[in-house]
Amino acid sequence: MALKQETLTPLGYYLAKKPVSKSKLGRMTGITKDRVGNLCNNIKSKPTIEEVYLIGLAVDGTYEKLMEYLCDGIELRPESEWDVTNAKEDY
Fold it and tell me: CA-to-CA distance for 31 and 86, rounded, in angstroms?
């Protein structure tokens, strides 16, 4: 069975390669099966950090692999684009 990445969210594609059902994932994490389905199929659904953490623990035993997969390609803007004249330091 070929996986169609264009019909899945990045989380959905990641989970499709893992041997865990949405129902079992829901039971393990406390996230409803409907919410898991939404996170997998609806590009407008954004997982919370708590959901990513719990799903990572349930699927891989650690959240780092899932975070690396979901955040691949995310980088800080180049320093040349940092506007220091209007920046406020909030400490």
Answer: 41
User: For 10-52, what is each residue's pLDDT tens digit?
Assistant: 999 999 999 989 999 999 999 999 999 999 999 999 999 999 9
3-state secondary structure string across 13-77? HHHHCCCCCHHHHHHHHCCCHHHHHHHHHCCCCCCCHHHHHHHHHHHHCCCHHHHHHHCCCCCCC
Global pTM value: 0.75
Distance CA 62, CA 32 (A): 20
Residue with tokens 């898991």: 36
Nearest alpha carbon to residue 56 among 32, 25, 35: 25
Give backbone dihedrals phi and psi of 47, rounded to 5 degrees, phi first: -75, 145
Nearest-angstrom CA–CA distance, 63 and 65: 6
